[in-house]
Amino acid sequence: MWQEAVDRKFFGTGPKFGRQEFDQLLHDFGAVSSDTPAIAFADDLIEAYPEAKVVLVERDVDSWYESWMNTVIKNTYDPFVTVVYHIDRFFTRPIARIHITTFQGWLVNI
Asked: What percent of the chain has pLDDT above 70?
């Protein structure tokens, strides 16, 4: 469902997710972290759950950027991971696809 949410939000494949869709996606979970793909839906989640508490964590931009580049970007676009992405279509590929299409969506909507 995360992939469907990304496709709808960034690529217009249907209406954006609202509370009903997020309820189905998140089930009984009481929180999401500021990680991909959930971070791409911060505004949508706040709109869907106006009663929810939002915790804003401020961090030094340079250390965050270095960390993000060395973990998320490096691992998403690592040549070995790319090979695994094409071989493992049941676990790695869906996760990598969500990351990649979320990044593409952000770039298209800048």
From this structure: 99
